[in-house]
Amino acid sequence: MSKQRQVVRIGPFAQAIASGVRKGDAIYLSGQVSVDAEGGAIGAGDFVAQVKQSYANVAEVLAGFDATMDAIVDETWFVTDMAAVTADLPGIFGARQEAYGGPPEVTQTLIEISALFMPELLIEIKCIAHV
After folding, report:
1. Can you tell me the distance from the alpha carbon of 122 to that of 116, in angstroms, rounded to the nearest whole number?
2. N or C terminus of the chain with fewer C-beta within 10 Å?
3. Please, which pLDDT band fits residue 16 given cuts at 50, 70 and 90?
4. Residue 37 has what pLDDT?
């Protein structure tokens, strides 16, 4: 028995800036970065600003599935500079709590990588949600 698949893409490019796939009760979001609807980087050099924009993009994709941040059960952060994360944990995790409307009840993995597809980007957030 096959469950119906739903795809949401947001942005001007063929591959989209933000996207997700729903299969059954699970929503798999592509990695969300700090870009606006036109694909321009937001918050160059500002980790907190990039966390906020990345989560805004997560929320926008979830809205395409009639879901909210409450649906997220797992997230993975890919960061280009672990030292930048640890240098401002209160600000970064404050932005995270703001996005979730309180302390998030999700699992989280934090991975340092060498680069993202635009040199200005510091973080990519990939999520799995359950509805």
Report:
1. 7
2. N
3. very low
4. 80
User: CB-hemisphere CA count at 13 Å for 119?
Assistant: 0
- CATH 3.30.1330.40 given to domain 5-130: yes
Question: How many whole angstroms separate alpha carbon 131 and alpha carbon 25?
Answer: 5
Please provide residue 66's backbone torsions phi and psi, each rounded to the nearest 5 degrees: 60, 40
Question: Which residues, at least 6 apart from 55, have a Cβ–Cβ distance to it below 8 Å?
Answer: 32, 69, 95, 96, 99, 125
What secondary structure does DSSP assign to 28-62, as a single string?
EEPPEESB-TTS-B-STT-HHHHHHHHHHHHHHHH
Q: Has residue 1 got a pLDDT over 50?
A: no
Residues 93, 21: Cα–Cα separation, whole Å: 27
Which of the two residues, 55 and 8, has the higher pLDDT score?
55
3-state secondary structure of 93: helix
